[in-house]
Amino acid sequence: MSKKQKWSLVGSILLFVALLGLALLFESELFIYAASAIPILIVMVLPDIRQNQYVQRTKSEKGIQVYKVANEEDPLLVISFQPGFVRWHCRKLYIDLNELHAEPIDVLPAAEDAASIPVLSFDLSAHPRRTGWFGIDLAQLSQRMVNLSYTTQEVNRFIIQMKDLEAIALLMMASATPLVASKSSSKSNSLSA
User: Lower CB count within 10 Å: N or C terminus of the chain?
Assistant: First the structure.
């Protein structure tokens, strides 16, 4: 929540209390009617419920480990986390591509309680506004897990093929480049007109 939203919320609550106090003091219906309109303003100022989960490696260093596994010709990126770390009710899990410092290993350490799920290329997407962030569609993953023997709360590894991640990175770079080119071409068109 931004500072502007905080002050708007606090101000509208204080206005509501003040109008109710004036209604009691002056025994006026007009102040009660005005006070009844204030909750509409309060609802408009309330912050949105988070629909996406953002993972910043610097803030959640204990909760997430990233490994790069050499798998012959197709290397894999394994994102390991504690069960329950991912909020499966969110739409997407966004991870900063610039903060992914993977430890290269030959073989993934085996754990008897490891439940992995592959993240396919159509599960990945670039963040619409933040550059360098990619998203994993949690709704698609949980839908695919319906027929598996373990639940979403037991999953503690995402396995992503590096070529899929590189495709998303190229898509992010390609989407950033035309934006600059289109701005400069629109300026040159407006000057020539």
Answer: C
